[in-house]
């Protein structure tokens, strides 16, 4: 009888702890989403890393993203991607080519303007830990699991958030094919003044550019 009571108490404690963790993770995610909805614009310097142990992949890149509403300008090494709201311009400085595509055909999960808000719905969350990152910033780590997992190419998203500011520090996506993509935000600025010309591809600035219209 004593052992049964102890077992029951342990199970209740585990269930209670799990519920507390879920509530904590939800509060962290809700805070991030609430903040993200107030950002009419944001800018971030970031590093990205693609790892796949099986395929021996380890690709590192440095980048900058500027987002204003639905428009964005993403610079990643030798590539610049500009969405002016009507057309996406993907420019390669290596080949001096620009490809035009329809924003409606873009993978919404890769849209910088939805980098954080896309995780608001359709996920269950789990609190992982609080820890200081490499820069000494106290962070909160949360795992997100898609509810409709069959329709996603990934199975887990790990969000790391600045505990004091509620702002993102990193996003890690674990794909079913073994790829692990991590975005570390080295500098994040909410609501910076971003001029509209930043989100326009000015062909005159790229003499001899070859245009590939895929629309």
Write a brief caption for the model.
The protein is α+β, with helices and mostly antiparallel strands and 215 residues long. The chain has one helix at 2-36, and strands at residues 41-52, 57-68, 71-76, 79-83, 88-92, 97-101, 123-132, 138-146, 154-162, 168-175, 180-190, 210-213. It has a single domain (2-213), classed as Lipoprotein localisation LolA/LolB/LppX (outer membrane lipoprotein receptor (LolB), chain A, Clam).
Query: Which CATH class is shown?
Result: Mainly Beta
Please mark out the parts with pLDDT under 50 across 5 or more consecutive residues, or reply none.
Answer: 1-21
Number of helices: 1
As a whole number of angstroms, the C-alpha radius of gyration is 21 Å
- End-to-end Cα distance: 72 Å
Mean pLDDT: 86
**Major sheet summary line:** 12 strands, mixed
CATH topology: the name is outer membrane lipoprotein receptor (LolB), chain A
Taken as a percent bin, the fraction of beta residues is: 35-45%
Q: How many distinct domains?
A: 1
Tell me the total number of β-strands: 12
- Measured as a percent range, the helix fraction is 10-25%
- Written as H for each helix and E for each strand, in order along the chain, the element string is HEEEEEEEEEEEE
């Amino acid at each position: 009888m004593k052992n049964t009571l102890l077992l029951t108490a342990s199970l209740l404690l585990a269930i209670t702890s799990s519920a507390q963790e879920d509530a904590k993770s939800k509060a962290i995610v809700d805070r991030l989403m609430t903040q993200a909805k107030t950002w009419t614009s944001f800018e971030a310097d970031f590093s990205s890393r693609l790892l796949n142990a099986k395929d021996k992949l380890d690709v590192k890149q440095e980048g900058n993203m500027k987002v204003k509403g639905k428009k964005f300008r993403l610079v990643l090494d030798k590539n610049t991607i500009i969405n002016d709201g009507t057309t996406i311009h993907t420019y390669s400085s290596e080949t001096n080519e620009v490809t035009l595509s329809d924003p409606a055909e873009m993978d919404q999960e890769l849209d910088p303007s939805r980098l954080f808000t896309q995780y608001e719905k359709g996920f269950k969350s789990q609190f992982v830990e609080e820890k200081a990152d490499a820069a000494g910033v106290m962070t909160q780590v949360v795992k997100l699991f898609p509810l409709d997992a069959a329709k996603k190419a990934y199975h887990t998203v790990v969000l790391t958030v600045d505990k004091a500011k509620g702002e993102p520090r990193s996003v890690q996506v674990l794909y079913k094919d073994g790829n692990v993509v991590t975005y570390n935000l080295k500098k994040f600025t909410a609501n910076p003044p971003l001029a509209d010309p930043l989100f326009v591809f000015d062909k005159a600035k790229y003499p001899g550019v070859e245009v590939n219209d895929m629309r």
